Amino acid sequence: MAVSQCGIAGKRLRRILLSIYLLAGLFWITGEIQAQATVKYKEDINGDGSVNSTDVIALLTLGRQYPDSTAADFNGDGKWTITDAVKLLVNIVGDHLTPLEPPPPPPPANVTWTVTMSNFKFVPSTLTIAVGDTVKWVAESAGHTTTSGTNGVKDGKWDSGTVATGNTYSFVFTQAGTYPYYCTPHWALGMTGTITVK
Ligand SMILES: [Cu+2]
């Protein structure tokens, strides 16, 4: 008696598993739901970065091989049963995906920093900025340049030439490093500066 009940239950389980496989196959063919990319989802059972029918297969395989693993207990009721696969399938088909971690914050926006040129000085003469930031030199008096290099020797990174009063010169810093610069006519008077890019 017990043997035949077990046999019936086994048949029923096989039928349920077959149905789920078929259902998984069906929406695989009709177009899989792809949740690509940076966010990791609980539904990505096989960890391939996308959520689709292969994850249902992965969960079924996992549950049959390791019924006691927490990974196989998808619905969190403490044990692996076929309902875990059903829940997974429902989540995927219904596009109710569960992010495992909050998405990363967007990168900080690039900043434009202003340095004035007047009275034979750059103000501020030292400035620490981030990679991608822009420095905009503003000529508040006539006859200045911003020229990368030291002691009147250009290093070729940038050279504004003479900037007319009220005009500006901008340079985008795309690499980390320390960038000394000077004003061509006035470096000997101490009109020098340094941009540090971190
Ligand atoms: Cu100058």
Count the beta strands.
Answer: 9
Strand content: 15-25%
Shape: rod-shaped
Beginning-to-end CA distance, first to last residue: 76 Å
Radius of gyration: 32 Å
Task: Give me some keywords for this one.
single chain; 198 residues; alpha+beta; Immunoglobulin-like; 2 domains; four-stranded mixed beta sheet; 3 helices; 27% helix; 24% strand; binds copper (II) ion
Summarize the model shown.
This protein has 198 residues and is α+β, with helices and mostly antiparallel strands. Helices cover 27% and strands 24% of the residues. The chain has helices at residues 2-29, 53-65, 82-93, and strands at residues 112-118, 121-123, 126-129, 134-139, 147-150, 153-159, 168-172, 177-182, 192-197.
Structure overview:
The strands form 2 sheets. Strands 3-9-8-5-6 form a 5-stranded mixed sheet, with no helix packed on it. With 198 residues, the chain is an alpha+beta fold. A hairpin with a 2-residue loop joins strand 5 and strand 6. It is built from 3 helices and 9 strands, in the order H-H-H-E-E-E-E-E-E-E-E-E. The protein is rod-shaped, with a radius of gyration of 32 Å. It binds copper (II) ion. Copper (II) ion (CU) binds at residues 120, 143-144, 183, 185-186, 191.
List the helices and strands and how they pair.
Layout: H1 2-29, H2 53-65, H3 82-93, E1 112-118, E2 121-123, E3 126-129, E4 134-139, E5 147-150, E6 153-159, E7 168-172, E8 177-182, E9 192-197
Parallel strand pairs: 1-4, 3-9
Antiparallel strand pairs: 1-2, 4-7, 5-6, 5-8, 8-9
